[in-house]
Specification:
Helix content: 10-25%
Shape: globular
Number of strands: 5
Radius of gyration: 14 Å
Distance between the termini: 12 Å
Strand content: 35-45%
Largest sheet: 5 strands, antiparallel
Low-confidence stretches: 92-106
Strand order of the largest sheet: 2-1-3-4-5
């Protein structure tokens, strides 16, 4: 599973758009038109697994450690870079104790 988040250039803004899909290519395809149009500046995709929270047994997604970042590149195309373990990703999404738990968006 893949959790994708589109961000704007304003760091204080909430995410422009986000979603969950079962295919990396589908996540990238969903994000690319928004990056090309300029509506979003950056796309962060995290590989996630389905889990349940301990506190109340609700469903959530937890990062596996693999991340991709997409940005508009020269020529109007989107360039994707893989970041295993959060290395080189702005904000270091895999700092100790960090989990990405998002309610199921299906």
């Amino acid at each position: 599973m893949y959790s994708w988040t589109l961000l704007t250039r304003k760091p204080d803004d909430t995410p422009y758009m986000l979603g969950i899909t079962d295919d990396l290519g589908r996540a990238q395809s969903a994000a690319e038109p928004h990056l090309v149009s300029g509506q979003a500046f950056l796309c962060h995709i995290a590989e996630v697994r389905f889990a349940m929270t301990v506190a109340d047994l609700t469903s959530c997604y937890v990062c596996t450690g693999l991340h991709w970042v997409g940005r508009l590149a020269d020529g109007g195309r989107v360039a994707w870079s893989e970041h295993p373990g959060g290395t080189g990703v702005p904000g270091d999404w895999d700092t100790p104790g960090w989990t990405h738990a998002t309610k199921d968006l299906h």
